[in-house]
Automatic annotation (TrEMBL):
Name of the protein: BLUF domain-containing protein
Organism: Rubellimicrobium rubrum
Gene Ontology terms for molecular function: blue light photoreceptor activity; FAD binding
Superkingdom of origin organism: Bacteria
Domain BLUF: 42-132
InterPro entries noted in UniProt: Acylphosphatase-like_dom_sf, BLUF_domain
Length: 175
């Protein structure tokens, strides 16, 4: 109600506005509020989790659910498969991304879900994908990000995570 408080406070050294002026000011302010819905902050969230042994058969269903639901909730992102982990980036309005992450944390199709990165953003990295899977589990798919070591998501520097998802976005654009 800050806008209302502002509209009702008069602090000039001329005569205070008349009642009519105040009412019309309030009316135009409230019309402006109705006409221009406030932009909710966008955020980006990345987590990693351990894939279960059934992950190949789970994946199709997970993607079906994710694409349908994310499209409704304006969530976009990518799901990366590494040899043992899921690494997922979700972006969208903060409230819906948070609720989505809470559901994902409770999902028995994976375990040891851990938050890797959370930030407010101005624009999306994956504006065109409600959810797309990219498989880096084969061969040396993860080599550029692990320097030949075992992949431990919680130890990856932020710059490497960012590079990984920039590469994934570039890959999806080429598809
Ligand atoms: C690795 C993984 C990624 C998932 N990604 C999403 C997603 O991006 N969006 C989504 O709505 N659900 C996703 N899910 C499914 C959710 O965990 C959950 O099953 C689904 O949102 C339905 O939740 P509900 O039954 O509580 O309504 C994912 C699940 C797993 C295991």
């Amino acid at each position: 109600m800050d806008w209302l408080a502002g509209a009702m406070t008069w602090s000039g050294d001329t005569n205070p506005p008349g009642r009519g002026a105040l009412v019309s000011d309030l009316l135009s302010l409230s019309l402006a509020c109705v006409g221009e819905p406030r932009q909710m902050p966008l955020c980006r969230l990345v987590y990693a989790s351990l894939r279960g042994p059934r992950s190949p058969s789970d994946l199709v269903k997970i993607l079906e659910t994710s694409e349908a639901r994310n499209a409704v909730e304006a969530i976009t992102g990518a799901l990366v498969l590494t040899p043992d982990h899921y690494l997922q980036l979700l972006e969208g309005e903060r409230r819906v991304v948070d609720a989505c992450y809470q559901r994902i944390c409770r999902d028995p199709r994976h375990s040891y879900v851990g938050l890797i990165l959370f930030e407010l953003i101005d624009e999306r990295l994956f504006p065109d994908w409600s959810m797309s899977a990219v498989d880096l589990s084969e061969g040396d798919g993860m080599a550029p990000y692990t320097e030949g070591k075992e992949f431990r998501p919680e130890e990856l520097p932020r710059a490497v995570i960012e590079q990984l998802f920039r590469d994934v976005a570039a890959r999806l654009r080429r598809r």
